[in-house]
Specification:
The protein is α+β, with helices and mostly antiparallel strands and 314 residues long. Among the domains are: 83 residues, no CATH class; 103 residues, Chitinase A, domain 3, CATH 3.10.50. It has 14 helices and 8 strands.
Length: 314
């Protein structure tokens, strides 16, 4: 294993050599016993991976090693199977034929996808932008401070009681908020941020907290008590920035890319649906035999004859 990892580690310095052998598919990559893995084998394996993911896959030496070890093991076992004559078994030959069908099916859809040429979506992209401007805004940002009464060190009822008492103190004197953060909050990060949570309405935070933060409108406004999986929070708005509309030219490529992807997906779905929806001609007599073709299914407990019925047949 160490030799293979070392060899993979040297790949980054072997680019010039790799260019010289890239076209020779029979070039040996690795062997183990009598098993040989060639570049053709690697190509066949990698082509099962979506083309957009291949570069990333092959950029990880650990993945390359796993792939090569898998190929070697398959070849070793396949060689043993041939020596035992298993490749002559009619059922195995049918399984091989099915594997070929599966591979051809996948390749056909890859070629179909490659043949698709998306139309020009420039006009539709602008229409989409005008009709859905809020989708292309930089969202409103809110920064808050919060007091957390957690439920790790106490029951939920105890935590809620403390939170209610704290909320009442703040209602009487809002200027106490920062001091209560330091003296009461169970959020361990307060040592560094003093309770400050930036961009608190973003998806980075649990939904109840983010939604409560988003509802605060005026700096200094304080939320009702908010329950999250962490406990009970009291939230204060300390800063807000309004949503910013992005100009069309900045988001045009993003919209066009989405429309093209949706179009491609619809074409592929249409191709597959067209084949799936072709008229089927089932053979009822043959279909009826499939359920017990490989053995009689066991009866469920509810289907078992009652003991009394079995002992006293009518």
């Amino acid at each position: 294993m160490r030799q293979l990892i070392l060899a993979l580690g040297l790949l980054t310095s072997a680019s010039a050599f790799a260019e010289g052998i890239a076209k020779d598919g029979d070039t040996l990559v690795v062997s183990q016993g009598t098993a040989r893995v060639t570049l053709d084998d690697v190509d066949a394996y990698v082509h099962r991976i979506p083309s957009t993911d291949r570069v990333g896959f092959m950029n990880k030496p650990e993945r390359i090693e796993t792939m090569l070890r898998s190929l070697l093991l398959d070849k070793q076992l396949a060689e043993e199977a041939r020596k035992l004559g298993l490749d002559k078994d009619p059922v195995v030959q049918k399984q091989v034929a099915l594997a070929i069908d599966t591979a051809l099916s996948r390749v056909r859809m890859e070629k179909f996808r490659e043949s698709l040429k998306a139309p020009d979506f420039t006009e539709q992209a602008y229409e989409d932008y005008l009709a859905n401007k809020t989708k292309y805004q930089i969202p409103r940002r809110v920064d808050v401070k919060h007091i957390l009464i957690d439920t790790k060190s106490r029951t939920a009822a105890e935590a809620e009681a403390i939170a209610k008492e704290t909320a009442e103190k703040i209602a009487r004197d809002p200027t106490q908020f920062d001091a209560l953060v330091e003296s009461l909050s169970d959020d361990q990060s307060k040592k560094d941020n003093h309770g400050l949570i930036e961009n608190a309405s973003s998806e980075a935070f649990v939904a109840p907290f983010a939604e409560a933060s988003a509802k605060l409108q005026k700096v200094g406004e304080i939320s009702p008590i908010v329950r999250t999986p962490f406990g009970f929070h009291i939230i204060k708005l300390v800063k807000t920035e309004s949503a910013v509309q992005q100009p069309y030219e900045k988001v045009r490529a993003q919209i066009v890319s989405r429309l093209e992807a949706e179009w491609l997906e619809s074409q592929i779905r249409g191709k597959l649906d067209g084949l799936r929806n072709e008229k089927m001609d089932p053979q009822p007599e043959v279909l009826a035999t499939l359920r017990e073709r490989y053995g009689k299914p066991a009866l469920l407990p509810s289907q078992q004859p009652a003991a009394a019925d079995a002992a006293n047949p009518q």
